[in-house]
Specification:
The complex is a heterodimer of chains A (205) and B (248). With 205 residues, chain A is of the alpha+beta class. Chain A has helices at residues 2-19, 29-45, 48-51, 55-66, 72-80, 89-111, 171-204, and strands spanning 118-121, 132-140, 146-155, 158-166, 169-170. Chain A has a 5-stranded antiparallel β-sheet with strand order 1-2-3-4-5. In chain A, helix 4 packs across helix 6 and helix 6 packs across helix 7 (171-204). Chain A is globular and about 55 Å long. The N and C termini of chain A lie far apart (42 Å). Chain B is mostly helical and 248 residues long. In chain B, helix 2 (11-30) packs antiparallel against helix 8 (166-177). Classes of the chains: A alpha+beta (205), B mainly alpha (248). Chains A and B meet through helix 6, strand 5 and helix 7 of A and helix 10 and helix 11 of B.
Amino acid sequence: MKRRDFYRTVLAVASVFAVGGAWAQEEAPDALVKRISTEVLDAVKSDAAIQAGDVGRITALVDGKIMPNVNFTRMTASAVGRFWRQATPEQQKRLQDEFKTLLVRTYSGALGEVKEHTLSFKPLRAKPEDTEVVVRSEVRGRGEPIQLDYRLEKTAGGWKIYDLNVLGVWLVETYRSQFAQEINNKGLDGLITSLAQRNKSNGKS
Amino acid sequence: MNPHCSAVSIRPVMARWLSWCLALCLVVLAGCASGPNAHPRDPIEPFNRGVQRFNDGVDEAVLKPVATAYREVMPDLLRTGVNNFFANLRDLWSSVNAALQLRPQEAVENFMRFNVNTFLGLGGVLDVASELQIERTTLDFGQTLGRWGIPSGPYLVLPFMGPSTVRDAVGMGVEASGDLVMGMDHVPSRNSLYALRVVEARANLLRAGNMLDQAALDKYSFTRDAYLQRRDSQVRALIGRDDDAADE
């Protein structure tokens, strides 16, 4: 395991130099996901406050390590669907903020348990010219392995994650019909209000 | 989430409820007017929502409090044993399903797991097979039907048992008839074991349930969309992997 990682690192470094030294831009999508998950796991393992579910600390970790590598605008836009283009920039911003808070709060509870788990990545099946890829991994711990996949897109600023799949369920798709439902009943502002209310009541518990 | 929990909680009352439910569905379908925003795979949404409300009521009133108390009282070690015991029975079924899906490797592995754990693991209480690195592949009959091209049919929320589809409900009915716990002759033992299995399965879901309450704007469509996606991806994986093997 160790040795293979070492070779992989050497290979990655070599290929970066071969392309001409444009560091961050040339990081392969699976290497990127692996690096972020390792960094996040290490941060969680060494931070008792995060393991206890401290939302402030978790938000800081998410903003520092994860969000720079996520296209959260695209994530929110595709969850909101065709209504996104009707939204004003102000509405779009509020939708992103509330959606992010919802996700961070939801998953913060699960972070306390990751210390017993390890990640294993499957080989990337993609062509070099692909601009959208799926990186597949598994979380191994007690019980059966948990499937955890990421969709990434190539941008000028490197690869960005725009969707996440847990156990065969894509995150964005699962929110799509709930969002559509709210918008159909109460409009875009109605959806923003519902998200804000849900976040407020989650904050109390 | 435990992938087979929904199936675990169900079997004994299954056959009876299934027939009731299918009858009810037909009645509802006959008079069903779905609106313009209806989910294409959920034509009987009003009925399903009703059943989910009923299930949530039962859960709030009985199952969740019992499972919470159970989790408080039972030592972890004992719970692992209980989990292992039922998972071991499940492995035997997975082995049958693997065989029906023409997957000899998984069939043999699951069958070996069952034998090793039953005879070396005190009837399945100890999971010796995992220590020996024999892989578990959990497969159910709904997946087997899907593997052979039977479409899922409309989404269906079953009383007491939760999210399903017409195909998966049929699959659960078939599995119920082959259930080892249900087949026991000694009725008090059978009922106790059944209750234990349901409570254990629910206790495993307590955390996931809380998470669902937090994550969902509408618990009904969240559950439905997640369930349908997950089942589709399981069946796709079964079919896809067979293509890779290229045995034809």
